[in-house]
TrEMBL record:
Keywords: ATP-binding, Nucleotide-binding, Transport. It comes from the Bacteria. The keyword ATP-binding applies. It comes from Diplocloster modestus. It holds the Pfam family BCA_ABC_TP_C. This is ABC transporter ATP-binding protein. GO terms for molecular function: ATP binding. Residues 4-252 form the ABC transporter domain. PANTHER family: AMINO ACID ABC TRANSPORTER ATP-BINDING PROTEIN, CONSERVED COMPONENT OF ABC TRANSPORTER FOR NATURAL AMINO ACIDS-RELATED. SUPFAM superfamilies: P-loop containing nucleoside triphosphate hydrolases. Gene3D superfamilies: P-loop containing nucleotide triphosphate hydrolases.
């Protein structure tokens, strides 16, 4: 059984069929790319996978568990985490706290314990500090744990977003244009980080990206969307040379 199985997914906004009959299977541990021209429906697919939009048609299964009809918090608990096209960090919070907020997904101490700061509270907080620091270390951000998120350079803010998503302990990580706004050096570094994340956190990754160097460099399989429907699917060397895909990108 594939980790993610999506069949016949579709959604309309008024008269616009934004996504139609979208079908995808992603095996555990895969690095999968979802690409396509602007407005093709890629982010809408992410919004359906994460419960932001409820699809009009189709099924979504993660490890065999149905996701359609669950809300975003329930889907996060099931094991799906995401980052956004535009950075959505808690800008006035420290780097460490940005990650700790996501760890609260699994904190189990009682309201009583936290209100009265009982010993269990401090023990749990210390454990969480350490877990957050361990995650940050993978991104080389542990040294900046106390820095305010908004004071990090752009490339590091993007990494912090990925670190925060990982703190929810996902099976499936969705990255929406992780290289957007990055310079070539930052993008090259990000490519290594994404590969490291997949291996170190034993996570499956589906990413949307316009940077074809990144897509060709790290994705093992691709699906191309165009006007809400699948244009092509396959390995990058085949898909990126497909004349229909080239034409869609050039807008001919
Ligand atoms: N909430 C909404 N209401 C109305 N139309 C929407 C809504 N969300 C998305 N759309 C439309 O659905 C289509 C697909 O949009 P989407 O953002 O998924 O494209 P995309 O492939 O992610 O594009 P980009 O690469 O530019 O981010 C667009 O025509 C968009 O305007």
């Amino acid at each position: 059984m594939a980790l993610l199985e999506v069949n016949g997914l579709g959604i309309s906004f008024g008269g616009l069929r934004a996504v139609d009959d979208f079908t995808i299977r992603i095996e555990k541990g895969m690095l999968y790319g979802l690409i396509g021209p602007n407005g093709a429906g890629k982010t809408t697919v992410f919004n359906m996978l994460t419960g932001v939009y409820r699809p009009n048609n189709g099924t979504i299964k993660l490890d065999g568990e149905n996701l359609v009809g669950k809300n975003p918090a329930q889907i996060c608990q099931t094991g799906v985490a995401r980052t956004f096209q535009n950075i959505r960090l808690f800008k006035k919070m420290s780097v460490l706290d940005n990650v700790k907020v996501a760890l609260h997904n699994e904190t189990k101490y009682s309201l009583w314990t936290s209100m009265f700061r009982l010993p269990g509270y401090f023990k749990k907080e210390k454990e969480m500090d350490q877990r957050a620091l361990d995650i940050l270390a993978v991104f080389g951000l542990d040294g900046q744990a106390q820095v305010m998120a908004s004071n990090l350079p752009y490339g590091q803010q993007r990494k912090l977003e990925i670190a925060r998503a990982l703190a929810t302990n996902p099976k499936l990580l969705l990255l929406d244009e992780p290289a957007a706004g990055m310079n070539p050096n930052e993008t090259a570094e990000l490519m290594e980080t994404i590969k490291l994340v997949r291996d170190k956190f034993d996570v499956t990754i589906l990413l949307i990206e316009h940077d074809m160097k990144l897509v060709a460099g790290i994705c093992e399989y691709l699906t191309v969307l165009n006007f809400g429907t699948e244009l092509a699917s396959g390995t990058p060397d085949v898909v990126l040379h497909d004349p229909a895909v080239v034409t869609a990108y050039l807008g001919e």
